[in-house]
């Protein structure tokens, strides 16, 4: 990362920190000024980050991610219902199996090995 980008990122961080500090330093009586100052610092910080190489790389990554999501083939309503039913059935069978194993081990340990009834 170039020195210019490091300076831009540090400046953006300082602006956001100043916005947070300003939020707490402005009296509550000023109403919307507090959140507006914080929001302005976030927008200014994001603008500075956007002008840096890492910011531009992030924007490109986000654009490519959106393009990839558009390529996804989503299941139909019927397919989604069938998959959901299969998952629910599997969870039920697994829960039943675990209950049987737990009950069997409890019986084995307490009734058979320890002789408690």
From TrEMBL:
Keyword terms, alphabetized? Cell membrane, Membrane, Protein transport, Translocation, Transmembrane, Transmembrane helix, Transport
Q: Name one GO cellular component term.
A: plasma membrane
Predominant location category: membrane
Report the Gene3D superfamilies cross-referenced here.
Answer: Preprotein translocase secy subunit (1.20.5.1030)
Transport as UniProt keyword: yes
Recorded hits in Pfam families, A to Z, give:
SecE (PF00584)
Subcellular location(s): the record lists:
Membrane
- The reply to whether Transmembrane helix figures as a keyword in the UniProt entry is yes
List residues traversing the bilayer: 7-26, 32-51, 83-101
* Oligomeric and partner information: Component of the Sec protein translocase complex. Heterotrimer consisting of SecY, SecE and SecG subunits. The heterotrimers can form oligomers, although 1 heterotrimer is thought to be able to translocate proteins. Interacts with the ribosome. Interacts with SecDF, and other proteins may be involved. Interacts with SecA.
Record family assignment: Belongs to the SecE/SEC61-gamma family.
- Purpose: Essential subunit of the Sec protein translocation channel SecYEG. Clamps together the 2 halves of SecY. May contact the channel plug during translocation.
What name has this protein been given in UniProt? Protein translocase subunit SecE
């Amino acid at each position: 990362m170039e020195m210019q980008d490091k300076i831009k990122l540090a400046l953006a961080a300082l602006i956001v920190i100043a916005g947070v500090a300003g939020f707490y330093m402005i009296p509550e009586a000023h109403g919307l000024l507090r959140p507006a100052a914080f929001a302005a610092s976030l927008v200014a910080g994001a603008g500075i980050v956007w002008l840096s190489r890492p910011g531009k790389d992030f924007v490109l990554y986000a654009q490519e991610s959106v393009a990839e999501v558009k390529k996804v083939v989503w299941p139909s309503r019927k397919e989604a219902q069938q998959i959901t039913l299969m998952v629910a059935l599997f969870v039920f069978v697994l829960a039943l199996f675990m209950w049987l194993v737990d009950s069997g081990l409890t019986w084995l340990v307490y009734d058979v090995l320890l002789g408690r009834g």
